[in-house]
Write a structure and sequence with these properties.
By secondary structure, the chain is α/β, with parallel strands linked by helices. Helices cover 31% and strands 17% of the residues. Strands 3-2-1-4-5-7-6 form a seven-stranded mixed β-sheet, sandwiched between helices.
């Protein structure tokens, strides 16, 4: 496979390497027409998650950020040409052994290493529903998953050429330093009562903080979120244009399949 720059690999050829809650691959066809007008700009994703959007769009330059430092460590190691050499099998005993090893690295302050990235990948593919959850002590506590068959990748070098022109940063969205012309695509955790992608829930104050932060950006902004009344009112009150979308059917926490109503809020 071509390991050259972002321009040489077609959008969508490299699949998101991790399972990630709230992945927006389905949204890429809606985002592309908006992005195409600005495709020479830098793409900034303050909530990059599993990179479904960046890999679907393939910008030449990007700043991809997320609060989850393990996710960002993984992408930074992939950028360096990660090749995983630990045992990876869909086996319960091995899963808990590797989970203990990963947690020992966290206890030792060695979470930003290639070894932690390899273990994080294995736990993500093998653990329950690809969840990323930590206990109060900050230790990864997702149980073994229930997949029939898992395909593991060891060699991430096909991604590294593309990732070389992308910058990965861990932290809260408000800490990002963004040039005026950047194109921001923001995909925060949905505005729903029980959402927790990381140790710290993204609450209503965060949604309001984000809306005002996005409003302060001088360049183009696209935000996606659940179409709740208060989200629509919030973005309308800040002069964003609202587009309504029908999202893919998702499984709710009660196991019921519900159609998700989504919005895109646009500015600039
Ligand atoms: C809906 S997911 C993004 C999914 C991503 N667009 C994709 O396609 O995979 C939301 C992300 O926001 C991150 N997050 C939560 N709170 C945050 C904060 N305060 N600042 C930055 N990222 C945050 C979570 O770790 C999670 O990865």
């Amino acid at each position: 496979m071509n390991t050259g720059s972002a321009e040489k690999i077609k959008p969508g050829v490299l699949k998101p390497p991790l399972k990630w809650a709230g992945g927006k691959r389905w949204l890429v066809p809606h985002l592309l027409p908006l992005w195409n007008n600005y495709s020479r700009r830098r793409l900034v994703e303050p909530f990059c998650g599993g990179l479904a959007v960046a890999l679907g769009i393939m910008p030449a330059e990007a700043l991809l950020s997320d609060l989850n430092e393990h996710l960002i460590n993984f992408f930074n190691r992939v950028k360096e040409g990660l090749v995983i050499d630990i045992s990876m099998e869909n086996d319960e005993k091995l899963y808990y052994t590797q989970r203990t090893k990963f947690n020992q690295l966290l206890k030792d302050g060695r979470q930003n290493t290639a070894e932690a990235a390899g273990l994080f990948y294995y736990l993500n593919r093998t653990g329950y529903n690809g969840l990323c959850r930590f206990n109060r002590k900050g230790l990864f506590n997702v149980p073994f998953g229930s997949y029939k068959k898992i395909t593991y990748r060891r060699d991430f070098r096909p991604y590294s050429g593309v990732f070389k022109s992308w910058c990965f940063q861990a932290g809260d969205f408000e800490n990002l330093d963004i040039e005026k012309t950047a194109f921001i695509y923001a995909d925060p955790p949905y505005d729903v009562e029980f959402t927790q992608y990381s140790e710290k829930a993204f609450n209503w104050e965060d949604q309001v903080r984000l809306a005002h932060w996005l409003h302060g950006h001088r360049g183009p902004v696209v935000l996606s979120n659940q179409a709740t009344g208060r989200i629509i009112d919030l973005y309308k009150s800040l002069d964003f244009k609202i587009h309504y979308l029908q999202g893919p059917r998702r499984i709710s926490c009660t196991g019921e399949r519900t159609p998700a109503n989504e919005i895109l809020a646009l500015r600039g």
